[in-house]
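stage 2 :: seqdesign
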C-alpha cells in the first residue's frame, strides 16, 4: 500500500533542507568587503531604467551599502561604479557628484533622480522608481 502523505512529507523535508543550504551558502559567500571594480560603467540610452551606485572602495559607508545591496547587482537591478576608475570618476563629476555613495536612477540615458547617503529607506525608494525624500 502506498503512502502518499509520507512521500509528500519526505519531498517537503528535502525541499526545506535544500532551500536552507542554498540560503546559508548565499550568506557565507556574500562579500564581506567591497570589491574595487575598475570596469567603466556605460549608460544605456535604450534601457528603460538603469540604477548605478557610485562608490569608493575605501569608504566605510560605501562598504555597508555594498554589503546590503550586493545581491541586487547580481540580479542586474543595480550596478556599482567605482570612482577609482577614471571614466566613472568623470561621469560622476559631470553629474556634480562630490560625495559617495551616490545612487543615480537613469531612464533612457537621462538622470531621473540621485541620492547620496546610506539610508536604506531612501535607497529602496529610488530603486523602486521614486525620488529620495518623497513620502
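stage 2 :: out
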Amino acid at each position: 500500500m502506498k503512502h502518499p502523505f509520507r512521500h509528500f512529507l519526505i519531498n517537503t523535508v528535502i525541499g526545506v533542507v535544500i532551500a536552507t543550504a542554498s540560503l546559508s551558502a548565499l550568506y557565507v559567500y556574500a562579500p564581506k568587503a567591497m570589491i574595487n571594480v575598475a570596469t567603466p560603467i556605460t549608460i544605456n540610452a535604450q534601457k528603460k531604467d538603469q540604477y548605478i551606485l557610485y562608490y569608493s572602495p575605501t569608504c566605510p559607508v560605501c562598504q555597508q551599502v555594498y554589503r546590503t545591496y550586493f545581491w541586487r547587482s547580481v540580479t542586474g537591478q543595480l550596478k556599482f561604479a567605482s570612482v577609482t576608475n577614471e571614466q566613472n570618476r568623470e561621469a560622476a563629476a559631470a553629474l556634480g557628484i562630490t560625495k559617495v555613495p551616490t545612487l543615480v536612477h537613469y531612464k533612457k540615458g537621462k538622470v531621473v533622480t540621485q541620492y547620496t547617503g546610506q539610508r536604506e529607506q531612501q535607497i529602496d525608494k529610488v530603486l523602486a522608481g521614486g525620488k529620495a525624500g518623497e513620502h
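stage 3 :: structure notes
- The beta strands are 50-55, 78-82, 102-107, 110-116.
- The first strand starts at residue 50 and ends at 55.
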